[in-house]
Structures are given as C-alpha cells and as structure tokens.
Design a protein that fits this description.
CATH class: Mainly Alpha
Number of domains: 1
Number of strands: 2
Shape: elongated
Order of helices and strands: HHHHHHEEH
Helix content: 40-55%
Length: 213
C-alpha cells in the first residue's frame, strides 16, 4: 500500500514515529510490488508448464516458422538481458519521489500494452539480436531463470524512485522512448505474451503426434 511522504503541522501522519527512510521506501511500493508479483507468477507458471515434460515436447516447433518452448524461453532471456542495463542506468539517474503519487503510464504505452497482452492478434517483428538461437532446453531454462532474478532485483531497486521521470532507451529500437515504469510493465506483458504461446504449444502437442524431424 502507498505510504505518506510528508505530513503537515495541522494534520500529522499516523506513523509520525516511523523514520523518514521507511516512509520514503513506502512511496509507490504498491505499483512495483504488483509488477514483482507478475514476474514471480510468470516464472512459477512457466515452471509448472515445463516440469516433468518430455524433452521432445520442449524442443519441438509446431511449424517450420514457429518457435519451440525452448526458443520462447531463450527469446525472453535475451530480451530481458538486453533491456535491463538501460533500465538500471536510468534508475540511477532518477530522483527520489517526494510526494505520494502513482507512477505514470502514457497513452501510447497503454495502447502498446493492450497489443502485447494475450490473447494477441498482432504479430510483432523480432529484431535479429533477440531472435532465439538456443536449442538446448536446460541452457535456455537456466538463462530464463537468471534473467528473471535480474529483473526482480532491478524492480526492487526502483522502489521509492521517480522512474516515470527518466527515459529508458531501447537497445535495439533507437526511436522508441519510454520511461522506466513503462519499460518494466512492457517487459512483464511481453513475458505473459510468450507464456501464452508456450501454453498453446504444449496443449497442441498433448493432442497431436510429434513430428519425426
């Protein structure tokens, strides 16, 4: 829940005896905790989907132009690893929040988020640097878990900071500009997009014979 940032002489905050550092840490915590919970949910749901699965199911593509579960995980790890350095650098530049206010998301980002969220209809072109190349499931899974842990640490570092006032530049699309809070929300929506894709792949494979190739 949001905490008060300041009090007045006429109306003192209820937690008057709480240290200022604790008060500041409460600002915008609810929004970032929500994002953290979403990251944890994606990791857990993905783990539940792949645990005790046949390796063949995790490395099989439904079509020649589509991705396998392993490739989806590799793409997620590549994307998060590519984006986080810019986000972390922007967090260091961001000022501390001094008022109890929500972090802002712009109208264009909200529109993009709606297109990212599953079930999606709009297909997005993947930059070559983020295209999956890993075909070993164990290696892809380790990379995915490590990138999720890095993302979690980055979100925690943003608590109490005005991350909607600093821009995180895209490492692959130079023309794209978005604030750090928007970038974190888009990362998690992107994860849900591919989690849905993984669910569809495995559901199809459960009812279809595996290809010989």
């Amino acid at each position: 829940m949001f905490g008060y940032a300041t009090g007045t002489l006429l109306r003192l905050p209820k937690f008057l005896g709480v240290p200022v550092r604790t008060q500041m840490a409460q600002i915008s915590t609810a929004q970032l905790e929500a994002v953290l919970n979403q990251v944890e949910n994606v990791t857990q749901k993905t783990r539940d989907l792949v645990v005790r699965r046949r390796l063949a199911h995790l490395t099989t593509s439904l079509e020649s132009t589509s991705w396998s579960v392993t490739q989806c995980l590799d793409h997620l790890a590549l994307t998060t690893t590519a984006v986080l350095p810019g986000i972390s650098a922007a967090i260091l530049r961001a000022p501390r929040l001094t008022t109890n206010r929500p972090l802002r998301t712009g109208a264009l980002t909200r529109l993009f988020l709606r297109n990212l969220e599953p079930p999606y209809r709009l297909r997005l072109r993947v930059h070559s640097s983020l295209a999956p190349g890993q075909h070993d499931f164990n290696a892809a899974w380790v990379a995915f878990e490590e990138s999720q842990a890095q993302l979690t640490r980055t979100i925690r570092a943003a608590i109490g900071v005005a991350i909607d006032q600093v821009v995180a530049e895209s490492p692959v699309y130079a023309r794209l500009k978005y604030n750090v809070y928007e970038a974190l929300r888009m990362l998690v929506a992107h994860e849900r997009r591919h989690l849905w894709q993984i669910e569809r792949i495995l559901k199809t494979l459960d009812g279809a014979p595996l290809r010989s190739s």
